[in-house]
Write the structure tokens for this entry.
Amino acid sequence: MSKKNTKNTKGKIITAAWDLFYEQGYEDTTIEEIIDASGTSKGSFYHYFEGKDALLGSLSYIFDEEYERLKETFTDDMSSFDKLLYLNSALFSMIEERIDIDLLTRLYSTQLVTKGEKHLLDNKRVYYKLLRKIVSDGQKKSELSSEMTVNEIVKLYAMCERALLYDWCLCNGDYSLKHYAQSVMPMFLSKIKV
């Protein structure tokens, strides 16, 4: 199986699963429904995942797919700072519309206690690569401060996002994540803007 087909099959399963989790809830979604919705086979499902619980760690894949899509929508007149705020707003909007808050909470809690791979912190993710490129370009164009390294700024940005997501989960989604972030992210990131 080619690498592209592997990614497509795995991606179909992940996307179908998270859509079903949002629509029906995690507990009420069966593996058979995920297989049907993804248009794949039982063999393919078990090739990539040991069971339904294994899909909980795949949320970073959904996020990275969204970042791939979003980077294609940047306009020439957007500064690097604007791109960072745009990514945050668009992703948080997608989270509110497509990701069940209970599953997001579960993912964050498992990432806190896991001894193994922490998917959200994987520097090879599209998320981190895209952030490093935006910040590096921003520093070259003198749009973003050079007082911090690219990696320091990326870490600051990611920590701010995680803090907002964590608080939103703690408050059980009692407010709009996107709208709150639109008001506080510019303040959080004001130190990096030139």
Notes: The two ends are 48 Å apart (CA to CA). DSSP finds nine helices and no strands in the chain. The CA atoms of residues 19 and 98 lie 7 Å apart.
